[in-house]
Amino acid sequence: MKAIIPVAGAGTQLRPLTYTQPKPLIPVAGKPIISFIIDQLAAVGIEDFVFVIGYLGEKIKDYVERQYPHLNTAFVVQEDRLGSAHAIWTAKALFADASEVFIFFGDAIVDADFNKIVAHPNSCLGVKKVSDPREYGVAECSKTGLVRRVIEKPRIPKSDLALVGFYKIKEVSALIDALDYNIKNNIRTEGEFPLTDSLMRMITRGARLHAFPVDNWFNCGKKEVLLETNAILLDREGYASDNLPPFDNSIIIHPVSIGKDCSIADSIVGPHVTIGSNTRIANAIIKDSIIGNYASIKEVILQQSVVGNDTAITGLRHSLNIGDNTEIDFSSP
Questions:
Q1: Which end of the chain, N or C, is less surrounded by CB atoms within 10 Å?
Q2: 115-148 pLDDT, tens per residue?
Q3: Model pTM?
Q4: For residue 231, which phi and psi values (nearest 5 degrees)?
Q5: CA-based nearest residue to 74, from 31, 90, 21, 82
Q6: Do residues 158 and 113 share a domain?
Q7: Do 180 and 47 share a structural domain?
Q8: Residue 139's domain spans which residues?
């Protein structure tokens, strides 16, 4: 089995953070999003990975090769971002010989029993019930879980089962045929080639795809979801930092994840804060936030914030001599 990880998107909903940092490398509860995916797949025995890169792709390549030198990795550049099916089609030469493929899009964190998925006798699509299916690809299924139809962002959904971004496909040649057919015949949805259209062609030609409900799905494409995911994971066992060194005149409110070689002084940090390595924090209050590597945070109060790598933030300091019955407002007009 080979894993295909499309990570070519620009992450526009997380700008300006993603102008210089690819979304899959944003840290959540102490490690980049892409590491959750690689670790889960490697844990069930997958060793061959194909990454479809594009925007800031060299950063993803460098990270994967540095952190996972034991895996067999290959990288394909998607020159034109023409949709999820186009991304996978770009890499078809590297997985055409595979007995099965596991497609996992690089901006989602999923809780599921991947051993059961791998052992399932049929192809599987990960699904999760959502309140507004119009925002996602949707699967319509029989009572037994057999997928009868998939559609991208339906205006009038007939199902509340959203596709969460991972797919185990046993009919590899049928997948490639469907990708080829739609792209060569320029069959698009809203100007792109979504994977749902290729899956639907497979279904109409006899492929049996089964819905696999996941326990949790964190679609980390928006700031609010990113921070919520960070908090949920930090509350779980095994994600927050243990045995932190003493920090000068500071209070750490757990759970937090603090990277190596950080300096924290005269500050309150936490709860639900992820801080990268080599970051300097002084005279600050930070909660419910994600701070990147090599950042410098001084004299500020941060909450519900995402701060990138190599970022410096310094607040205002005031020396005041204030008499009685005085009101001062430092907020913006």
A1: C
A2: 999 999 999 999 999 999 998 999 999 999 999 9
A3: 0.88
A4: -65, -45
A5: 90
A6: yes
A7: yes
A8: 2-232
Is residue 155 located within the same domain as residue 40? Answer: yes
Residues 159 and 252 in one domain: no
| Cα 274 from Cα 156, distance rounded (Å) | 39
Query: For residue 266, what are its two tokens?
Result: 């005269």
Assess whether 225 and 244 both reside in one domain.
no
Q: In what order do the strands lie in the sheet with 296-298?
A: 263-265, 280-282, 296-298, 312-314
The CATH number assigned to the domain holding 257 equals 2.160.10.10
One domain for residues 42 and 175: yes
Domain shared by 70 and 200, yes or no: yes
Is there a cis peptide before residue 194, judged by omega within 30 degrees of 0?
no
Whether 330 is covered by a domain: the verdict is no
**263 band by pLDDT with thresholds 50, 70 and 90:** very high
Read off the tokens for 222.
Answer: 């928006």
What's the structural domain count of the chain? 2
Asked if the structure places residue 326 within a domain, the reply is no
Over the stretch 267-304, which tens digit does the pLDDT of each residue have? 999 999 999 999 999 999 999 999 999 999 999 999 99
Q: Of the residues 189, 214, 232, which one is the last residue of a structural domain?
A: 232
Q: Are residues 203 and 90 in the same domain?
A: yes
What pairs with residue 147 in β-bridges? 141
Please, what is the angle between helix 195-204 and helix 172-184, to 10°? 120
